[in-house]
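Work through what follows:
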Amino acid sequence: MADRILVPVDGSDHSRRALQTAATEFTADERIVLHVVDPFDLEAATEDAVWGREFMEQREREAEALLEEYEELAAEHGVSVRTELTHGSPARAIIGAADDFDVDHIVIGSRGRSGIDRVLLGSVAETVAKRAPTSVTIVRPDR
């Protein structure tokens, strides 16, 4: 049993599956669902968003709504979660949160990004697995 599990989420099916896995296959005193707002994620910008404060405020609102969805998903699996929101490079922020929250285990989806972003930036899950201060389970999609 892990005392504290960290589940980083990004809105992808992979991260939903990671939360389902953390809820159904791991026992823990606490599950922390973490979303990282990446201020440099240009793909997230919309035509209506203005750079600067408005853009970040929009991202914050979207992130809060996303975390609420994950709370509901966890409840469907009979567990409660603590949600956390942070900013920065996803891999670095996840590793930092694992340290800050003193987690015993990280459960992360195998990928969120696709296409050229993944080629240029690498896999967040891969980086987390290599550098995390604790054990990591990478959840692959159903095949």
User: Anything to note?
Assistant: The chain has one domain: 2-139. The longest strand covers residues 28-37. The chain has five helices and five strands. The mean pLDDT is 86.
